[in-house]
Amino acid sequence: MSDVRQVVDGVDPDKVIVPELEKMLSDDGYLRDFQREIKRRYGAFQRIVKAIEEHQGGLDKFTKGYEYFGLHVTPENGVICREWAPAAEAMYLRGDFNNWDKFSHPYKKLEHGKWELYLPPKPNGDCPIAHESAMKVSAV
Fold it and tell me: 39 — alpha (psi -120 to 50), left (phi > 0) or beta?
């Protein structure tokens, strides 16, 4: 799902079947003028769900993105940082832990708009980012 626009472009409303569309139109006649747009949007929705199923492991896994994205302390006391920014050309983490250096901690670009950065534990085994540190992710 590299670009949602690519997924939904080209939906042909004439080929989309919306469940119970006639019932909806009979319940609210004012929607009849928007029947083509309703079909187009439903077709776009179907394509997005299919892309999530194919590329993200399903809707259930996709809705639990907080378990994957963000900053997480690893069992060995490192920090894994993951973001989803499909339009970004570069990403960096800066904050108290690196004296707000803008470019010292670049993320690695992965597929489907994902970015990742791993910070190993300090030599003494401590977490590289102290609790309650201020941080900022910069996207270019």
Answer: alpha
